[in-house]
Amino acid sequence: MAENIGIIAGGGQFPRLIAQHARAAGLGVVVCGFSGHTDTATAECADVYEQLHLGQLNRMVNFFKEHGVTRVCMAGAISKPKALDFRPDWRAAKLLFSLKKKGDDSLLRGIIADIEKDGIRIVASADLAPGLRAPSGTLTRRQPDDREWSDIRYGWPIAKAMGAFDIGQCLVVRENMVMAVECLEGTDATLKRGGQLGGEGCVAIKMVKPGQDERVDLPSVGLTTIRNLVEQKYAVLAIQAGKTLFFDREEALRLADENDLAIVALPDDFA
């Protein structure tokens, strides 16, 4: 009998890609989605699907246990503004009360620890689809020029420091000045705001938060990201090699090349 793997599914295509890779590996797919967050098409990729309200932690754990799931991964985005409409059950409320900090990373660590108390191991979703991780180097035809490299070197440690405070993963800079910092609104809104403030030629930087549990919430970019960067006339996108998920990479890079947008994937210790 095939092993069932559980997927805690947010929005976007990532949960569906993970489900497809799991099936290709001979695994059964048991998916838990959330009202207002998970795309309806995700249910079609699951052998078993349950839709809950965000905060029904105990029901989610029992759902996976009912279907013999011992490994679970998290995939897909949860809309932070929508997440404020949180309906915690007794288990989630107890967890929230126990946390000293309520940032993304602290909350995710708390959820992981609570789920694993029931004998369900949280695994990295990206390990089921390693081809999604961005390779190192310049990914587009055009490399950043000297001014743009200066902006990347300026912003890289700031983005890392920002992540250490569990604020966000994306930073926009231009001419060695910070234009926008990602907070509750998410990456796409941050890029739009940064482009409006900085004008043509901004540099976007996106990286994993230092010390973050990399089984969950890895930074991601894709075709929508590149469209936003092109629309706002950005010059460069700098991401972390191996720790950033890059969706629809071939099409996204083609669009970047057509619009002279440089994309680089850099190591952790850059700058």
What can you see in these coordinates?
The longest helix has 19 residues, at 146-164. Strand 7 (170-174) and strand 8 (177-181) form a beta hairpin. It is built from 9 helices and 13 strands. The termini are far apart. Helices cover 36% and strands 21% of the residues. With 271 residues, it is α/β, with parallel strands linked by helices. Helix 8 runs parallel beside helix 9 (249-258). The model has no long low-confidence stretch (mean pLDDT 90). The strands form 3 sheets. The protein has a 6-stranded mixed sheet with strand order 6-13-11-9-7-8, sandwiched between helices. It has a 5-stranded parallel sheet with strand order 3-2-1-4-5, sandwiched between helices. Strands 10-12 form a two-stranded parallel sheet. The protein is globular and about 55 Å long.
Task: Present the secondary structure layout.
Elements: E1 4-9, H1 14-24, E2 28-34, E3 48-52, H2 57-66, E4 71-75, H3 80-83, H4 90-98, H5 104-116, E5 121-123, E6 137-138, H6 146-164, E7 170-174, E8 177-181, H7 187-198, E9 203-206, E10 220-221, H8 223-231, E11 236-240, E12 245-246, H9 249-258, E13 262-266
Helix pairs in contact: 7-8, 8-9
| Helix and strand element order | EHEEHEHHHEEHEEHEEHEEHE
Overall shape: globular
Strand order of the largest sheet: 6-13-11-9-7-8
Number of beta strands? 13
Structural class: alpha/beta
Portion of residues in beta strands equals 15-25%
Number of helices: 9
Overall average residue pLDDT = 90
List the uncertain runs. none
Task: Give the radius of gyration.
Answer: 19 Å
Helicity range of the residues? 25-40%
Rounded to the nearest angstrom, the distance between the terminal CA atoms is 50 Å
Largest sheet: 6 strands, mixed
